[in-house]
Amino acid sequence: MGDFMKLTCSQSALAEAVTNVQRAVSSKTSLPVLEGILIKAKNNQITLCGYDLEIGITTVIDADITDEGAIVVSAKLLGDIVRRLPDETVCLETDDRFITYINSGQAEYKIVGIAAADYPELPSFEKTDTLTIQSGLLKNMIKQTLFAVSDNISKPIYTGSLFDIEEHVIRIVSVDGYRMALRKETIACEQNSRFVVPGKALSEVLKLVSDEEKNTEILIGQRHAVFQIENYSIFTRLIEGNFLDYKSTIPAGNKTEACVVTRDMIGSVERMSLLTSDKIQSPIRFTVNAEEIKLSCSTAIGKANDAIKTPVKGEDVEIGFNNRYLLDALRNTDTDIVKLELNGPLTPMKIVPTEGDAFLFLVVPMRLNNEN
Question: What is the pLDDT, as a whole number, of residue 3?
């Protein structure tokens, strides 16, 4: 084989890299090599890669390399060892039997590795588009829409979020049949494109993307995309299929509207939720009239009432909601005051900002029993 690797690098840099890359490694896989992290040493840099055949995370750290080479080492073991090493430097070495030696201070490990040749390559793809977006903004947009991604694998397309870029506007849309979350921003982007990113990949992007002014680049292909976040790359397959025509789903106009302090509304819904649980599903009832929104909830264990005083425009209405869907939407508004727009008791409620259209959340109503 002759492909021995020998290098020295910083313990803290390696520990951080392994911890982040390890998140793409599958814990339950039939291929032992996929439980590992691929380490490649070349040109005084180490590239680390974790990949579960759907999502891949790679990163690069600096190292002093005596011999270039590559090896696959158990991700869990490597992470556990590297995070606990006593010294600021680490020596990694491999031999012709794929044994990997890890030394730091007085601590020495000798662990069994796997040939790098057995590790599956990340699919190469032709990029059709590149999208550059400020990292803090991307983080915020994903955070405000990820909660509404479906976990129902019988409709795979909705287990991801739609990125819809047209005429210098990017929209990220998630929908799961009971609610919809839409977040919209203007960006400098010439091309129009549409692609659906798995929710699992987006939650990894969320963990690695910073709040800073730096940019994230998204390289888009026919079936794959790569999010380049500083010195990390997150590779993901895209979900194929037809995403809902979300624009036509948004109810036009509204018969009733009210502005409420977001925190007050969350508090009130939480108080009503104390009588519901996964076992006892009962809607939170909104009774909306000219000067207030009354909330009530009645289940087998009891009854709760509350009210929020606020001027209401338009028709009186009585409507029921699933408490969790309502809370998810309210908690992700990220603004002090929100506007509730209603269109009768059977149409989804819109939750929007009082000014502009940066976000739009839809919550589908639940049927009310007519007992009071």
Answer: 64
Looking at residue 279, its pLDDT comes to 81
Determine the pLDDT at residue 278.
77
Q: Cα separation of 147 and 133, whole Å?
A: 21
For residue 312 the two structure tokens come to 């209401």
* DSSP secondary structure string for all residues of 278-296: SSS--PEEEEEETTEEEEE
Residue pair 217/188 in contact by the 8 Å Cβ criterion: no
**The model scores a pTM over 0.90:** yes
Write down the pLDDT at residue 221: 96
Taking the C-alpha atoms of residue 144 and residue 124, their distance in angstroms, rounded to an integer, is 31
Report how far Cα 330 is from the mean position of its chain's Cα atoms.
Answer: 18
d(CA 139, CA 144): 9
Task: Give me the pLDDT at residue 372, please.
Answer: 46
C-alpha to C-alpha distance for 346 and 251, rounded to whole angstroms: 11
Q: Among 113, 104, 108, which Cα is nearest to 5's?
A: 113
- Tell which residue, 71, 84, 51, has the closest CA to residue 112: 71
Token pair for 248: 């036509």
Q: CA 106, 109, 61, 15 torsion: positive or negative? A: negative
β-bridge partners, 256: 314, 342
Backbone angles phi, psi at 214, to 5 degrees: -60, 165
Six token digits for residue 24: 């793409």
CB atoms within 10 A of CB 282: 21
**List of the chain residues with pLDDT < 70:** 1-3, 370-372
User: What burial letters (b/e) apply to 114-150, b meaning 16+ CB within 10 Å?
Assistant: bebeebeebeebeeebebebebbbbbbbbbbbbbbbb
- The residue whose two tokens read 């079936």 is 223
- Rounded distance, CA 41 to CA 118, Å? 17
Find tokens 């190469």 and name the residue: 124
- Among 30, 56, 194, residue whose Cα is nearest residue 124: 56
- Euclidean distance between CA atoms 42 and 103, whole angstroms: 20
pLDDT of residue 210: 87
Would you give the DSSP letter of residue 250? S
The pLDDT of residue 211 is 82
